[in-house]
Amino acid sequence: MTGVLEVKNLNKSFDGIVVARGINLSLTAGKVLGLIGPNGAGKTSFFNLISGVVKPDSGAVTLAGVSIDRLKSHERVRHGLSRTWQHIRLFPSLTVLDNLLVGTHDYPGESLLSVLLAHARLKQHDKIARERAADVLGRMGLSQVADALVSDLPYGQQKLIGVARALMGDARCLLLDEPMAGVEGQSYAAMQRVVRDAADCGVAVCVVEHNVGFIQDLCDEGVFMFSGAIMARGSVAELIRDPQLTELYFGH
Amino acid sequence: MEYVYGIIIIVGLYVVLATSFNLIIGYGGLVSIAHPVFFALGAYTSAVLSRDFGVPVLLAMFAGMVVAVVASVALTLPTLRVSGDYLLIASIGFQLGLLEVIKNLRFTGGPGGFTNIPPFLIRDFGRESYVILVLAVTIAVVLLVRLIARSDYGRAMSAMRDDEQAFASVGRDAMWMKIVIFGLGSGIAGFAGALYAHYYRFITPEQFEILQSAAILTMVVVGGVRTTWGPVVGALLLQALPQALTFLHLPPSVLGPIQGLLFTGLVLVFMFVRPQGLVPAENVWRDRTPRSRTGEGG
Ligand SMILES: Nc1ncnc2c1ncn2[C@@H]1O[C@H](COP(=O)(O)OP(=O)(O)O)[C@@H](O)[C@H]1O
Ligand SMILES: [Mg+2]
After folding, report:
1. A41 lines ligand 1 (CB under 6 A)
2. Nearest-ligand number for the alpha carbon of A229
3. Is A86 part of the contact surface with chain B (CB cutoff 8 Å)?
4. Which of A44, A54, A91 should we substitute to test contact with B (largest number of B Cβ atoms within 10 Å)?
5. Number of neighbours of residue A15 by Cβ within 10 angstroms
6. What is the pTM of this model?
7. Where are the domains of chain B?
């Protein structure tokens, strides 16, 4: 069985700093993979390379069997790749709900013609999208802030909204960059549940996270990245126990 | 009466220009100074086609709009591909360059201008009919931009201005959106140009100089950027006030400087006293959603 996302021999360096060293990785539908590694290992860069934010020096990425190497960022998203950002990057001038609505998969409001001509379709889409957004927000415990401006909310809640927004696109593959950083304990269970639900619906998930407990509870498997290379793949418990990896993780 | 009609038409056309420029620079966040040249392209296209090629005026006017849209894509497509920052620089070159071309072509009448442009409506229906046409277009444009700003498209524009990369990460195409916004704004300016040409029936390159761009920008900023009524108020103030001054029958030697002072003074006053413009900025997406659902807004 081939993965939803297949990464083949991905390489990238920035002026001598190697951030991706021949990475081969496969993400499977319905599974959550933890991506572990110290700061500067190249985890965020890996997401940037896959999502088309950064161009690789070489390598190939396929999504659901189709090469996405030549696709622009937004085209990859439409093809089913969804990501969050380590530094959140919401739309600060919009409310929580509007952030999510812009993030829907098929957004007719993006086309001027459909706005000017096709009011019926817009209304129908709007109704479905609002229901979906209400559902996602409800599951994350964010219903009461739906109408708040995101820039007025605390960092932890913004982080959750970033994940909620990514869930609005019909993703086959979901990349989460440190979703728990800055999030308070009470959202722990909500975040676990939401990500697990996505996987149970057949989404291939990859999570970068320093919160080892979170990774251990959530992930089916883990990979360890160091200096742009994947050093090991296995159960999260195994990776954590490995003394060599622990030393790499915490430095000397 | 003809004088008053002239004022109504010129103010109306400046409302159209300021409103369409507000769409580009305010809602679209696209910093450009090349608005007058699209005004010119519409004017010249319609004038040349109708006078020298026998194209019916109404058709020629729409052709003027189309040419302005096509030219705008020729500006935005290559520059936005590189980076948004190039747009401003490229727009300066575009504005100066294209106007220079118009000045040096034979079929545009060169620097002397293009005369004998066929009139429209006025011969059959009187001057009033043209005034009504311009007013109708003005109202339509103001309402169109308002509709867009408050629609889902407006929400997407807001998101795009906030963070382009995040916008792409939810599957939205920022570049295409910018090309469309710029194209629509420029097309509207082109149509305004055509309306201008067939009323005054004489156009020269000087009427579309880069300085016009400062005037239009001032209208938007003084009135209130990213608002429906800001550009309307701005255009009224900066076009109608200097015109009204002429009623005072001052000698031209005094009138000119007074108009200049008024213009500069207004800009200075607004920069210091009311940088947000006359009409308070409405963040549609901040105000609308909560109020419409909870009904708590005052
Ligand atoms: N656009 C860039 N230009 C130059 N260097 C970069 C860029 N992006 C990341 N890097 C460098 O690549 C390395 C890996 O960064 P990153 O992928 O953010 O690591 P991680 O997410 O694992 O902490 C860091 O040394 C960082 O400074
Ligand atoms: Mg990182």
Report:
1. yes
2. 1
3. no
4. A91
5. 4
6. 0.91
7. 2-207
Question: What does each C-alpha distance from A44 to A91, A97, A207 come to in angstroms?
Answer: 20, 27, 11
Indicate the helix (H) or strand (E) that contains A241.
helix A236-241
| CA A44 – ligand 1 centroid, Å | 7
Q: Give the model confidence (pLDDT) of A46-72 as tens digits.
A: 999 999 999 999 999 999 999 999 999
Distance between B155 CA and the closest CA of chain A, angstroms: 7
Is A104's C-beta closer than 6 angstroms to any atom of ligand 1? no
Q: Is B134 exposed, middle or buried (0-12, 13-18, 19+ CB in 10 A)?
A: buried
How is the beta sheet containing A32-36 ordered, strand by strand? Answer: A81-83, A173-177, A204-208, A32-36, A221-226, A229-234
ipTM associated with this complex: 0.94
Question: What DSSP character marks residue B85?
Answer: T
Rounded distance from Cα A43 to ligand 1 centre (Å): 8
**Residue B8 phi, psi dihedral angles, 5° rounding:** -60, -45
Tokens coding A105: 């998969």
Closest CA to A20 of A3, A31, A35: A35
Say which residue the tokens 């159209």 belong to. B16
Is B203 in a helix, a strand, or coil? strand
Summarised one tens digit per residue, pLDDT across range A16-28 is 999 999 999 999 9
Which residues, 6 or more positions from B16, have their beta carbon under 8 angstroms from its beta carbon? B137, B138, B141, B188, B189, B191, B192
As a whole number of Å, the CA-based R_g of chain A is 18
Distance CA B94, CA B263 (A): 26
Calculated CA dihedral for residues A50, A53, A54, A55, nearest 10 degrees = 70
Q: How confident is the model at residue B265 (pLDDT cuts 50, 70, 90)?
A: confident
Q: Which residues contact A113 (CB under 8 A, 6 or more apart)?
A: none
CATH code: domain A3-250 is 3.40.50.300
Q: Does B172 touch chain A (CB under 8 A)?
A: yes
Ligand nearest to the CA of A54: 1
